[in-house]
């Protein structure tokens, strides 16, 4: 009898431990699936890029739903991924870029969104839903989007419409700016620029095309001052470089801060460029999945979405929000590329095993 | 009989020694624990990951153990990166020694202790602010309108140095010079200068006295300073990136890339492990041979 009871106790302990260890993911999923619209189940821990949300919006969310919001920041998709993979810290909501959503989704690090709890998903522009990195937006909702192009000084380029990747890759065209060019320190972005110049897809899996791009970059390297992903905009403002490969929003906030709109510009080269979109997603480290989905719904609200985009001058993927955005910003081709330019943009896709070929080619360029 | 009387105190002695050894071990226990927790254990983790495999999305998978990461170390591009980093580290160590030795010598030979203390604090002052911030400050100094550039142009000697190889050397020299000066100063300061006087009394020239007396006596400082400069120079990646423009890959950047954008932890782990072991062996061999000649 005593023995029987003890066995029962052991079995109970084993069952509890097993539930705590194994069943965590699906339990969280069940919790998320049961959330209702505007339901909050605790405070929100938001893991975001720095300077990526209007503090007033955070205040508004806190006041509306009576919860606290803790913000932590990351510098790169990879460092965010490492934090989520390591576990330990609680993040209810993260903002990964397109290709990173794909990686996190495949690694089982994301919770599926409960569409019934986020009715504002319907406000999204269909151009930004159902993208290859997350078919059907099962795991993510777009936050803001932008482009990778060229920031330049009007001393060397008169009009953004004249921009071409040749300013970096054509030996003759780029000769006058030798030593005054910066490229992103990011293999996919750098190869995307070279591949576009050559007329190929930025997601090329063709070794010959990659080789051609590698040769092109090796030849251009002598004219490049620096590879940098975090100070290209400052270098352009400081006059250290006159042609800078980089992300539109970073240029705009730097131009704004330095009051340099008259001297500096940004545009997408005529060959096309990269479009990217950052997305809200709930990692498996989340605790308050209902609050997280309520926050997604809050950001996708037309008025809030417009405020989000206007604050840092990034384009909104929210069609209803775009109806409320300052028309001057909407007509700025550097923020909202016109349809004929948008057609030439490509999203970077996860290339699976072929990604190491890009990494190796980048090492070759840098040797 | 005599054996007995003699063995008794010997036994006491041995017991005493044993107690001493035990006490010594207990005293050193925190150090052992520190080494195990913060050095040996992480190293074991790195070692284990170096045999792991990589998922399609780049996640390290602790299964399908293999030697692939070690095989990649033999690719010519890796040798090229290692050679380039070694060259940079050796050159920086030599430059630091050439500039740091006379400086430490001058510092150690100041008569007034108060003055020496003030000068020493001046050497340490740069450490009061963050290394990254100081490196960015150099970017301004070496940039298009920077002070160093203006001076060079006025003298007609050099133009903008930012994003060139000399800028990298300047940044490294600046960053690691104190690590050379401090041990050299310590060695020179506690040197018995009457030995130099004795050498001079025996008609040694100033140069000979330096070569035969001062230099050998300051050798521990030279060795300690060189290791303190060489090891971090070999792994340097902030300075080459910020001041050199990240145009050439060094070991430091290469390892960082594997754990970041390239998402290849096994290869990054193999790289770090091999470098660490090589450095450890080199240092031990160096200390062993030097200890004999000291």
Summary keywords:
A: alpha/beta; D-Maltodextrin-Binding Protein, domain 2; 2 domains; 8-stranded mixed β-sheet; 3-stranded parallel β-sheet; 17 helices; 43% helix; B: 294 residues; MetI-like fold; 13 helices; 1% strand; flat
Distance between the ends of chain B: 46 Å
* Shape verdict of chain B: flat
- Tell me the CATH architecture of the largest domain in chain A: 3-Layer(aba) Sandwich
Strand content of chain B: under 5%
Identify the CATH homologous superfamily of the largest domain in chain A: Periplasmic binding protein-like II
Can you give the helix content of chain B as a percent range? over 70%
Shape of chain A: globular
SSE string of chain B: HEEHHHHHHHHHHHH
Radius of gyration of chain A: 23 Å
Unreliable spans of chain A are 7-23
User: Main sheet of chain A?
Assistant: 8 strands, mixed
Count of individual domains of chain A: 2
Q: Helix proportion of residues of chain A, in percent? A: 40-55%
Specify the CATH class of the largest domain in chain A: Alpha Beta
Query: By CATH's scheme, which homologous superfamily of the largest domain in chain B applies?
Result: MetI-like
Number of domains of chain B: 2
Most extensive interface, residues per chain? A-B, 33 and 27 residues
**Strand-residue proportion of chain A:** 15-25%
Word description of this protein:
The complex is a heterodimer of chains A (367) and B (294). Helix content of chain A is 43%, strand content 16%. In chain A, α8 crosses α9 (207-220), α9 (207-220) runs parallel beside α17 and α10 (232-238) runs parallel beside α11 (248-258). Chain A has 2 domains: 2-143 and 277-335, D-Maltodextrin-Binding Protein, domain 2 (3-Layer(aba) Sandwich), CATH 3.40.190; 146-275 and 342-365, D-Maltodextrin-Binding Protein, domain 2 (3-Layer(aba) Sandwich), CATH 3.40.190. Chain A has helices at residues 2-22, 24-33, 55-65, 77-86, 98-106, 166-169, 171-174, 187-197, 207-220, 232-238, 248-258, 289-299, 302-312, 319-322, 327-330, 339-342, 355-365; strands at 44-49, 69-74, 93-94, 110-111, 140-153, 181-183, 224-227, 243-247, 264-267, 274-283, 346-347. In chain A, α3 links the parallel β1 (44-49) and β2. Chain B is mostly helical and 294 residues long. Chain B has helices spanning 2-49, 68-72, 76-108, 113-124, 131-142, 147-155, 165-189, 194-201, 206-217, 219-234, 238-244, 251-259, 265-293, and strands at 53-54, 60-61. Chain B has a two-stranded antiparallel ribbon with strand order 1-2. In chain B, β1 (53-54) and β2 (60-61) form a beta hairpin. The two termini of chain B are 46 Å apart.
